[in-house]
Specification:
alpha/beta, Nucleotidyltransferase, domain 5, 2 domains, six-stranded mixed β-sheet, 11 helices, 11 strands, globular
């Protein structure tokens, strides 16, 4: 009997911050475990952040690069951050919500691989990744920022603030994200989750306007839609205008809001004040009988990863809902899930994200409603 041989890779990752928080960047290298051959290098500046954010960002980029090279491979992830290794190994609790979101992103990336083990190494044995991280910080400093000091480590002030942008390498896969048109629930600002509400007459007109704008734009290779009726009807209008087929992807459906379905925010808060407070504060807290933002993000991330794997370099129109679209935007920006509560997304609006082979997402537009200006 013959057995399939699982490829083994090494991901060495590092990150640093000059000022803590200060100018930050990460680096990662993917190696063939058997030969030591360098298979990929990734590095980037991430703005103003702390060392821990940079360390996690390097791990995420390295795991995503490994998954691009050999999905399902066994990986040994080597870092000189004891904190990241212990947290990702499950031995230390993750107390800070921003680190929890980054750890979740790393876990999402690891799901595209086989077994992943996390190993601490001294900085001297992580020189390749450390060099890439410093090159990223050097590049960011040349982009216009100026902060004195060397790399340091802390869990304070973790949210990155963007500075200079560096062009990514390779041909991106572009996702155009279209929220469905108006429904009776969206018009009244009520929770609309997996309930299969239709478009209003105005919603159909909005879908047609979006379809005309997308047809004029051109260059779309495929339409992928949520299975819910409001999204499928919106996708059908684009299909009619472009002649493209429509593929349904169940994972792109909206969050299940459970007992809040059909309620306004005020009504939900009056009946479940503690649950609403928890839902706003903790992405893993679900509505009563419903689905958490974390769980929604996991299934949407898995759907995106599958699309990126099967459609490299193409332009995909994804017709979906508020939470799935916002979750993809936060992934591209490496933003914590809490940032979703500070984004406003109109019905029938468009967003555009480029996803590069090294795992980086670049947000090109957000909440574009120019096609609706006369409505």
């Amino acid at each position: 009997m013959t057995h399939a041989v699982t490829r083994s890779l090494i991901v060495a990752a590092d990150g640093g911050s000059r000022g803590n928080p200060g100018i930050a960047g990460y680096g990662a290298v993917v190696l063939d475990a058997a030969t030591g051959e360098v298979l990929a290098e990734v590095r980037d500046g991430i703005g103003r952040a702390t060392n821990n954010v940079a360390e996690y960002s390097g791990l995420i980029a390295g795991l995503r690069a490994a998954a691009q090279i050999a999905p399902g491979a066994a990986v040994e992830a080597r870092l000189d951050s004891k904190l990241v290794v212990e947290q990702m190994s499950g031995r230390w609790k993750i107390k800070h919500p921003d680190l929890r979101s980054l750890a979740q992103a790393a876990s999402d990336a690891a799901r595209q691989l086989g077994p992943v083990t996390y190993v601490w190494v001294p900085r001297a044995r992580n020189a390749h990744a450390d060099r890439l991280a410093n090159e990223a910080m050097d590049s960011a400093e040349r982009g216009g920022a100026s902060v004195a000091g060397g790399a340091s480590r802390s869990e304070e002030n973790l949210v990155p603030k963007p500075i200079a942008w560096r062009a990514a390498d390779g041909q991106p896969t572009t996702t155009i994200l279209l929220r469905h048109g108006q429904t009776p629930l969206s018009d009244e600002k009520r929770f609309a989750g997996t309930g299969d509400v239709p478009l209003t007459e105005k919603g159909v007109a909005q879908a047609k306007a979006a379809a005309a704008a997308l047809a004029a734009r051109g260059g779309i290779d495929e339409i992928v839609t949520s299975p819910l009726r409001r999204a499928r009807r919106t996708a059908a209008e684009v299909a009619a205008a472009t002649g493209l087929p429509v593929r349904v992807e169940d994972a792109l459906r909206e969050t299940d809001f459970g007992k809040w379905e059909g309620l306004s925010f005020a009504e939900a808060r009056d009946q479940w004040p503690a649950e609403v407070t928890a839902w706003l504060a903790e992405p893993a807290a679900p509505p009563p009988g419903g689905e958490s933002v974390t769980d929604t993000g996991l299934r949407v991330a898995a759907a995106l990863d599958a699309l990126l794997a099967t459609s490299p370099g193409r332009t995909l129109l994804i017709v979906s809902h508020v939470t799935p679209i916002k979750s993809l935007v936060t992934r591209a920006l490496l933003a914590p899930p809490a940032a979703m509560h500070r984004m406003y997304l109109d019905v029938a609006s468009l967003c555009e994200i480029d996803w590069y082979p090294d795992g980086r997402g670049v947000l090109r537009s957000f909440n574009d409603t120019a096609h609706l200006r006369d409505m």
